[in-house]
Specification:
This protein is of the alpha/beta class. It contains 12 helices and 11 strands. A 7-stranded mixed β-sheet has the order 8-7-6-5-9-10-11, sandwiched between helices. The chain has a 4-stranded antiparallel β-sheet with strand order 2-3-1-4. It is an enzyme of class 3 (hydrolase).
């Protein structure tokens, strides 16, 4: 196994030396400014707490496992590909952000059913002008750090991308076009006479829906499960992450971090590339 160590800051040599000792690594290679590969490393109980204390992300990656082994990345949108929760920002236009954000957080921690939480949150938006959606996209939506680097590297390897969200088609379709994503699926807000009705059209795309779309696109591309990477941050991403060969918890809730193959707690989305680079 290679132990990959990365951070959003310079990593002091003393940290790398300590981790090399803990993991009994045969060789240390500096791969980038904030990126190290410790070859022939073995797990040790002291690595996780040490990395957390010093804001380092780590991952044990089998030697020979590379990005080119994969054919599909499936990712969540809100707080994963982008830095905001769109529904919270839409609610802010109504002066209701605290109430909606509280429900969002509870759902992401897995405390309440996602579909029910979405219905409750969307109901609070009744009567809002549809122009608020464009304002959120124009004024507040930002990609998370490293997103474009990650997507460029995926394209280089011919890896397809699926954006699957419990959020809204209004945002996923714009991101799909802007970033050149291959597939996107989300929920549709009902709008009548230019106003949000407080309802979602059709069946809500929930945790199982995300997992089903991963399986659908994977089968369409004739890929095996171990050729798929899934990335998310909330409890409603766990079912789709369980369907993938590798799962990435991105700045995620504790319930997601403990179940993922790898957790990126400090670096940007390009941390995925660093984990699986040659």
């Amino acid at each position: 196994m290679n132990l990959i160590i990365q951070a959003a800051h310079d990593i002091p040599a003393v940290h790398i030396d300590h981790l090399a000792q803990l993991s009994a690594a045969a060789r240390v290679e500096q791969v980038g400014a904030h990126l190290y590969r410790l070859r022939d490393a073995v797990p040790h109980d002291g690595i996780a707490p040490y990395c957390l204390e010093h804001q380092l992300d780590y991952g044990f990656v089998p030697q020979g496992k590379h990005l080119s082994d994969f054919g599909l990345l499936v990712m969540d949108m809100d707080s994963t590909l982008i830095s905001i929760e769109c529904i919270d920002e839409i609610a802010d236009m109504q002066g209701l952000k605290p109430q909606v954000a509280e429900i969002t957080e509870s759902a992401m921690r897995g405390e309440i059913d996602f579909a029910e939480s979405l219905r409750r949150r969307v109901a609070l938006l009744e009567g809002l002008d549809e122009g608020a959606l464009q304002r959120v996209y124009d004024e507040r939506l930002q990609l998370n750090p490293g997103a474009e680097t990650m997507l460029a590297e995926l394209k280089k390897h011919g890896i397809k991308t699926l954006l699957v969200s419990g959020g809204f088609v209004f945002f996923t379709e714009r991101l799909k076009a802007r970033l050149g994503l291959d597939f996107a699926h989300a929920n549709t807000l009902e709008i009548v006479d230019g106003k949000l009705t407080g309802k979602v059209l059709g069946k809500i795309l929930d945790a199982q829906g995300k997992a089903d779309w991963l399986a659908h696109v994977r089968d369409e591309l004739e890929l095996k499960p171990d050729e798929v990477i899934a990335m998310g941050d909330g409890a409603n991403d766990l079912k789709m992450m369980a369907q993938a060969g590798i799962s990435i918890a991105y700045h995620a809730k504790p319930v997601v971090r403990v179940q993922a193959s790898y957790a990126l707690n400090f670096v940007g989305l390009d941390g995925l590339v660093n984990l699986l680079s040659h």
